[in-house]
Amino acid sequence: MSGAPREEVPVGLPRNYLRPCLLLLLAEGTSHGYELLEQVSALGLDRVDPGGLYRSLRAMDEEGLVRSSWQPSASGPARRTYQLTDEGREWLHAVAGSLAEISRSLEAYRARYQAVLEQSRPAR
Amino acid sequence: MSGAPREEVPVGLPRNYLRPCLLLLLAEGTSHGYELLEQVSALGLDRVDPGGLYRSLRAMDEEGLVRSSWQPSASGPARRTYQLTDEGREWLHAVAGSLAEISRSLEAYRARYQAVLEQSRPAR
DNA sequence: CGCCGGTAGGTGCACCGTACAGCTACCAGG
DNA sequence: CCTGGTAGCTGTACGGTGCACCTACCGGCG
Question: Is CATH 1.10.10.10 correct for A18-119?
Fold first, then answer.
C-alpha cells in the first residue's frame, strides 16, 4: 500500500547451507544429484537451482568430502552417485555444531525481539 | 585434537543478518554507528567490519528504514545518529518472522542429524 | 519415424553481500 | 608532536547465489 516501493526482505538461510544439507542427506544413504535435488526442499531449502547443487557436489568431491561413481540407470541416463567419506562425516559433525551455534544466536535475537515487542505494548 | 587438515567450515549466520540486528538494536533506542558496532557482537555477529556496518546503515537510510541526523559529541568527532522509522519497524516485524522460519528449518536439520547419529551407533 | 516430456547432469555469467584493507577527521593526554 | 581512542567512510577482490541456457538418454505418442 501507499507509495512505499515494495521492498522484499532479503534475509535467507545460512550461507553455504546447501552443503550441510547435502552431507546430511548423503549420511542417510548414497544418492545422486537429481534425487538430492528433490530431497533438500524438505530441509527448508526452497527453489534450489540444479546448477548450484551439481556444482556443490562436484566441489565436495574435489575436496574429498564425498566420493562419486557413475552408475547406469535402468531407465534413463546414467547417474553419478555420491557417497559420504570419513572426512565428509567429520565435516558434517563440525558443521552441525556450527548450525547449533547459529540456532543459539537466532534464539538470542528472538528473545530480544520479544522484549522490544512487550516494551512497546505496556498495556495489560 | 584431531589432526584433520583443517578445512575451514564456511557456514555462517543467515545472509544479510546484519540488517535485522541493526534494526533490532535501533528498535531498542536511537544510536550511532560506532556504538552499534560494539553492540551487534552480543547478537552472535562476530568480527563485524565497520565498513559493512556503515554501508548497511546508509543503505537502510536511503531505503527509508531509518532516519539519520548529525549530532555533535561532547568529546570526540560528530556522530550520525540513526532512528528507526515506521517502515523500518514493519521491516523488523517481517524479518523477525523470516528468522523464525529459519530457526524452524535449523531445528528440522538438527532432528534429522540426531536421527543419523543414533542410527550409526547401534552396536559397540 | 519425428517429436515431446521427463530424467540426469552440466556451463556461463551477472549480481551482491562479505571481508579485508585503507583512509580522513576530531579530540585528549603525555 | 605524536599517539591512541572515537567516529565515519571508501575501494576492491572474493565467493556464494540465482538465472538462463545447454547436452544427452530414454519411453511413449501420433
Answer: yes
Which value, in Å, is the radius of gyration of the alpha carbons in chain A? Answer: 20
Domain positions in chain B are 18-119
Size of interface A-B (CB pairs under 8 A): 139
Subunit contact B44:A14, Cβ cutoff 8 A: no
How wide is the angle at C-alpha A92 spanned by C-alphas B96 and A54, nearest 5°? 85
pLDDT along chain B (124 residues), means of 10: 53 94 97 96 91 96 96 90 96 96 96 93 68
Q: How many of the other CB atoms lie within 10 Å of CB of B54?
A: 15
Cα A67–chain centre separation: 19
> Which residues are CB-neighbours of A9 under 8 A, at least 6 positions away?
B91, B94, B95, B98
Residue with the three cell numbers 528472538: A110
Instruction: Using the Cα atoms of residue A14, residue A46, residue A97 and residue A93 in order, give the sign of their dihedral.
Output: negative
Distance between the alpha carbon (CA) of A56 and the C1' atom of C12, Å:
16
With CB atoms and an 8 Å threshold, state whether B11 touches A19.
Answer: yes
Residue B71 — φ and ψ, nearest 5°? -140, 135
Cα separation of the two ends of chain A? 31
> In chain B, which residue's Cα lies nearest the Cα of A19?
B11
> Is A113 part of the contact surface with chain B (CB cutoff 8 Å)?
yes
Q: Strand D closer than 7 Å to the CB of B13?
A: no
pLDDT digits (tens, 9 = 90+) for A45-103: 988 999 999 999 999 999 999 999 999 888 889 999 999 999 999 999 999 999 999 99
